[in-house]
Amino acid sequence: MIYGRSLFHIVASLTIFHLSGAAKKGTEKQATSETQKSVQCGTWTKHAEGGIFTSPNYPGKYPPDRECVYIIEAAPRQCIELYFDEKYSIEPSWECKFDHIEVRDGPFGFSPIIGRFCGQQNPPVIKSSGRFLWIKFFADGELESMGFSARYNFTPDPDFKDLGVLKPLPDLLTLLGL
Predict the structure, then answer these.
(1) Fold for the domain defined by 43-156
(2) Which of 38, 72, 81, 112 lies at a 20 to 30 A Cα distance from 54?
(3) Within a 10 A sphere around the Cβ of 56, how many other Cβ atoms?
(4) Every domain of the chain and the residues it spans
C-alpha cells in the first residue's frame, strides 16, 4: 500500500503544481530546432523522442533576473540522458552562487541534487536514475552571458531491462480536465 500512497502524493503534487500556475512561470517564447515547437522559459516536457531546450535568447545573451525550471519526464521504465552543447557560457562564480544551472534527480526542487554548473566548460553527460529530471536555470541581475543549449533523450531503465518498455501514460492534467 506504500506504493499507492506514493503515487497519490505525486498526483496531488502535480495537480497543485499546475493549479498554482508554476507551470506557466516565465512565458517568454524562444526559438528551437525545426523538429520541436518553441518552448517557454521553463516547462514540463515529455516528448517521446527526446528534445532540445535552451536558456532564453540562446545563443544571444540571456536576460537578467530570470529563473526557468524545466522538468523532463520519460515514459515508465526509462531514464534520461542530458547533454549540454559545447557552446556554453554561464557567468562563472565560486560554487556557482550567481548564475547557474542546477540539475536534480527527480521531478521536484527538493529531489537529490546531481550538480550545479556555471562557467565556460559545459557540464558532463547527466543520467537520471529514474524517469524525471528537474533542471533550473537561474540568472541574477548582473553579468549575462550566452547561456546554454541542452539535448535530452531516453534510454531503458536498467532496473527493468528484462521487462521491456511500457506504453506512455496519458497526460494526467488532460485526464483531470486542467
Answers:
(1) Jelly Rolls (2.60.120)
(2) 112
(3) 21
(4) 43-156
